[in-house]
Amino acid sequence: MSTLLVTHAACLAHETPLGHPECADRLRAVLHALEGEAFQFLMREEAPRASLDDIARVHSRAYAEELLSRVPQEGFVRIDADTGMSSGSGEAALRAAGAVIHAVDRVVTGTPHNAFCAIRPPGHHAEPDQAMGFCLFNNVAIGALYARAKHGLQKIAVVDFDVHHGNGTQAMFEADADLFYASSHQIPLYPGTGAPSETGVGNILNLPLMGGADGEDFRHVMGDLMLPALRAFKPDMIFISAGFDAHADDPLAGLNLREADYGWTTREIMRVADDVCDGRIVSTLEGGYDLEALARSAQAHVRALMGN
């Protein structure tokens, strides 16, 4: 089984203030973890830039242009208490979104079976007209609507297991019955959305977990609730918002998942994909803030994508 790794050095140039959890070392840790003999057969390609037309399928063009115009020549521009931009942030954001688009093109052609986009800044909190939660553009939503516009894949699903609810992705999907969003996340926690009652037009499935929940709890909601709903939706392509901050060692939340849980859920999603959409999966990095736990979890996720 062939798996494509898409990344770009520009994603390291999105600088954040000293001590900020969403730092370039996160991506360095992931890329280092995906070196070595176990990953020697990964296909590796550089991300292109996303175009404004690609971004404008999910964000207003005015928002995208205004955000990019605020990228500083030096120093740091703060958008909110958690989110900001350095001189390298515009290029990083365009390459991050472009990575998912490129992965879609490659997976649809069938050359790699699936893909993992090792990118930053993350994206699932970015709403149509608002950057927030470390996120500038909503990478996974941009990729999803690109798959529809360019490849005619009408029914698209996103599975999000980041510990924080992907409010931005939900906001972009909730009125379209052909877009399915399923999220397992801790509640109460930032951003305060993701209640089970938030169902969109029957296409949104929120599976919150209380602080202290472990892998057994996670596997229950994913196996008994999410996977059957995903299979019933019968998507033409599946995207994964792969956040690894529900790990027991992560400092920003209170769930107790381990690497084996990420491997398990990846393999289970792959089984559905094999049955309903010719195995087409594009996964993209979201959160994960303990560097060692992030690295081990990304390894488990990618090993599963590779069929190991």
How would you summarize the topology of this molecule?
Layout: E1 3-7, H1 24-33, E2 43-46, H2 52-55, H3 61-69, E3 77-78, E4 84-85, H4 89-109, E5 114-117, H5 139-151, E6 156-160, H6 167-173, E7 179-186, E8 204-209, H7 215-233, E9 237-242, H8 259-276, E10 281-285, H9 291-305
Parallel strand pairs: 1-2, 1-5, 5-10, 6-7, 6-9, 7-8, 9-10
Antiparallel strand pairs: 3-4
What this model shows, in words?
With 308 residues, the protein is of the alpha/beta class. The protein has one domain (3-305): Arginase, Chain A, CATH 3.40.800. The chain has nine helices and ten strands. The chain has helices at 24-33, 52-55, 61-69, 89-109, 139-151, 167-173, 215-233, 259-276, 291-305; strands at 3-7, 43-46, 77-78, 84-85, 114-117, 156-160, 179-186, 204-209, 237-242, 281-285. The strands form two sheets. An eight-stranded parallel beta sheet has the order 2-1-5-10-9-6-7-8, sandwiched between helices. A two-stranded antiparallel sheet has the order 3-4. Strand 6 (156-160), helix 6 and strand 7 form a beta-alpha-beta unit. The chain is globular, with a radius of gyration of 17 Å. The model has no long low-confidence stretch (mean pLDDT 97).
